[in-house]
Design a protein that fits this description.
heterodimer; A: mainly beta; 5-stranded antiparallel sheet; rod-shaped; B: mainly beta; 9-stranded mixed sheet; 9 strands; 0% helix
């Protein structure tokens, strides 16, 4: 007899790149997994200023696995503007993922694994 | 036809190639029923045209509890184009039958004047005792951040960070910050 096991897991990756006369990048990541819940969230920010053409890039990716209900969301913003002779570029990326709930629909009835034994 | 005099070695090149490149980061891994892995990396660099400086730190901790816990934490620092490098670092770990912890930290300051030094950089390293305070409590958690900031003409900054957790198994974090000025 096989035993169904649901292992909750979460992961997150983020990258930010910036090139110019003034540059700044920031990435932050947090993941957590408990019995019944897995979450991942984080962001990436890249900013640059340059009288020519500043370059920025920011990307994030997240996953959460293990439950019977999952959700994920990602947003990316890119803003470019000029102030006098200075050009500014900002890229922001945010992602979240969550999974929760028991994956084994029969676990609430005290069964250790899905089985039809005794039902017929 | 007269040839132009050779450029003295202490004169900074006027091309756009960066004279100082610094990358630092690390990773932390904890395995067990309850695990925590954390990390933080940062670099700040300035380029004045005559000299470049960079300073930063990397700190990673791991802690785990369980029947066979494991914990590991490492940091790294790669530098190109520096003339003076000062590093203060500490690392260590503890291992018990039901708990384990590890930590690694480094702080650094770097100076580059843009000239070619045939003798290589002056490196000053301070090893300090490790005072681990990592603790794993409740679930499996991984948390990490990375910051890079530059000031100067034609500079670049890059950061990456990732985290992974598996319930009742392990936590893993990794992060890198890089600057070029």
């Amino acid at each position: 007899m096989s035993t169904a096991t649901n292992s909750f897991s979460a992961g997150f990756a983020s990258v930010a790149l910036a090139a110019g006369d003034q540059t700044s990048t920031f990435t932050a990541t947090k993941t957590a997994a408990w019995s019944g819940t897995a979450v991942a969230y984080g962001d990436a920010v890249a900013a640059a200023q340059d009288p020519g053409t500043p370059h920025t890039s920011a990307a994030t990716d997240a996953f959460a696995y293990g439950g019977n209900t999952s959700s994920s969301h990602s947003s990316t913003w890119s803003v470019d503007f000029s102030s006098g002779s200075m050009h500014t570029s900002v890229d922001i990326s945010v992602s979240t993922a969550a999974s929760y709930g028991q994956g084994d629909a029969l676990s609430g009835y005290g069964l250790t694994a899905p089985s039809l034994h005794g039902l017929f | 036809m007269a040839t132009p005099p050779a450029e003295p070695s202490h004169v900074q090149s006027t091309d756009t190639a960066p004279s100082l490149v610094v990358a630092t980061g690390g990773s932390a891994t904890a395995g067990g029923t309850t695990t925590t892995a954390t990390g933080a990396v940062s670099i700040t660099a300035h380029d004045s045209g005559h000299a470049s400086t960079a300073s930063g730190d990397a700190s990673f901790q791991a802690a785990a509890t369980g029947s066979a816990p494991t914990a590991d934490a490492t940091t790294f620092l790669d530098i190109s184009g520096a003339h003076v490098i000062q590093i203060r670092e500490s690392s260590g770990s503890t291992q018990g039958s039901t708990d384990a912890s590890a930590g690694s930290t480094l702080h650094f300051h770097v100076v580059a004047n843009g000239s070619a030094d045939p003798n290589g950089p002056v490196v000053i390293v301070h090893q300090q005792p490790f005072h681990g305070t990592a603790d794993a409590s409740g679930g499996n958690v991984a948390q990490v951040s990375a910051v890079a900031e530059t000031h100067g003409t034609d500079t670049a900054a890059a950061t990456s960070s990732d985290a992974t957790t598996v319930e009742n198994q392990f936590s893993l974090v990794h992060a890198t910050s890089l600057i070029a000025v």
